[in-house]
Write a structure and sequence with these properties.
With 142 residues, the chain is α/β, with parallel strands linked by helices. The chain has three helices and five strands. The longest helix has 18 residues.
């Protein structure tokens, strides 16, 4: 209830001009006190360390299978296409077994080579006790 009849109540308002003045003074103060000098870095000589030698990569035996089905072990043609002949060539290429370093057989087969010739190489690797087999591929050129 409004018992004061002639008096109208004034709406409270926020005067923004003094607030803007205060913010401008703070901004000027910050601009003056900020230094724009470049910090020079210290030159540090880092210590060196002799790390142990990295683990040697296992030897690789590259086996190529041509489109005609011929097999080449480390670029040396294998005379016969039988699994036993290929296994003998793989054993010869692997050399003496080294403790913990079994050679990796990398098969590079022609895209038109038969599946059987690739399977023969895999069986020969199994007979030669070479269990690490990998296939070489190339990316499609588009």
């Amino acid at each position: 209830m409004n018992f004061q009849r002639g008096k109208m109540r004034e709406e409270p308002e926020i005067n923004l001009i003094p607030m803007i003045d205060v913010l401008l003074v703070i901004l000027i103060f910050l601009m003056i006190t900020t230094t724009y000098s470049k910090f020079s870095g210290m030159e540090i000589n880092l210590p060196t360390a002799d790390a142990p030698a990295t683990k040697e990569q296992p030897t690789e035996i590259n086996v190529a299978v041509t489109a005609a089905g011929d097999v080449l072990v480390n670029k040396t043609p294998v005379g016969a296409r039988q699994v036993e002949a290929i296994a003998t060539a793989l054993k010869r290429a692997a050399g003496a077994p080294v403790e913990g370093k079994e050679p990796v057989v990398i098969i590079s087969a022609d895209a038109k080579a038969t599946h059987q010739s690739v399977i023969d190489v895999m069986q020969a690797a199994q007979q030669a006790s070479l269990s690490h087999i990998s296939f070489a591929t190339q990316q499609n050129k588009q």
